[in-house]
Amino acid sequence: MTLSTVRRYQSGRVQQVGEHAAVIGGSLAGLCAARVLANGYDTVTIIEKDSLPDDSSFRRGVPQGPQVHALQEAGRATLEDLFPGFGEDIISAGGLLIDGASDFKFYDEGGFLADGTKRFPMYFATRPLFEHVIRRRVASLKNVELKPGCQFTDYLFDSETMTIQGIAVREGSDRKRIAADLVVDATGRTSRTPTWLDNHGFDAPDIDEVQINLGYCTTAIRRPPDDRQTFFAAASPPRTRGGAAFPVEDNRWLVNLHGMNGDHPPTDPEGFADFAASLPIPQIHRLIETHPQVWQDIEFYPFPSNRRVRYENLDRFPDGLIVLGDAIASFNPIYGQGMSVAVLEALVLHHVLASVRGPNLALAFFDRVQTIIDTAWTMAIGADVQFPETTGPTPPGTRMFAWYLSRLTRKAHSDAELRDALAHVASMEHPPTRLLRPGVAWRVLKPEILRGGHTSHVSSKAEPRRTS
User: In CATH, what class is 210-303?
Assistant: First the structure.
């Protein structure tokens, strides 16, 4: 399921569902869930253990917050539906709008992709700014309450009806019970729901983990106001190193370096610069060398594995509980899927609330949301399994699709239409099957004919093309 295959958000589609819904977690996934719940519940309460800043400051409970984040088209368009004027709010807050078809320089498989044929809008900002804009819009809803500094401690469970009836929380030294018709777990990879299920007579869900041992670092450097250069060079075997430079608010670039399979970038300035110099493109290192560093520190974040909790395979699940966001699946962050997947999951919740009643709500949600996760999972795992050190379960056909995608990418170095097709899939606007359509497949699989009638096979290990 992608933007083109799911019904768009309709504010009037959800009628009265219940009196009160509680969301655990105030990051982007929780905020978007609260937005759709506000249509069907008299009141919605968002429980967040951190204090919430009034501006776009980093939040301690989001350790990956300082890292680069990309908002794909599926996420951008859906956020615009959920919060009309979202894009204007991002720009007003200092974010940038660039043309992803020409301004976004994407290096992969030994070369830069050709510029696309049609304008492709992309918003760039720090993760805290995205969250700040969305949090401000959610907080403006009359029936939504944000409770920062409030720690979730347990579910309120009725063992006779097998129903979650609310949550127990701690505010400072006070312990409280909050009744709710529906509870949404948006607590991320640290979610305690699988363990809770196992401790309360339910089957614990299976968990798929694909080990990649990724480490990545980000810092901010000064950016001239009229300079919007944007570069991305993902790690691609046999090269375990990659990097990015994204323009963001306050005249800065966020510069990211990442390494797969334990080849992690260092956090000291000299080592960081040396790592950047080892990338197959010179632009990122050049920006580091010629622009002053804004942040005092270089922020490191480890990401050991892609992780997916298989709630969709459960036959029994307590009524009154939903799990979404990174608590249900999280992906290699260098592919920039996380925010958009979370937004699309909220959209699925919206449609489930409009069409499902009774004890089957959670299972219906898990069944429908798995198609979104399947798409992102296939793309992320398909790229990661190209590294021989990657371990863990992979969907059938993943390696064959990875081979095809690799060839498509190489052809897209000089084929603008293939760049377009790849961009629409990578942005979760269209499903990966679009890349297998006859018109695309012919452009990917046709041999290169050189003078004299000889066939040329382009090597995936082609020398990188350096541009200024």
Answer: alpha beta
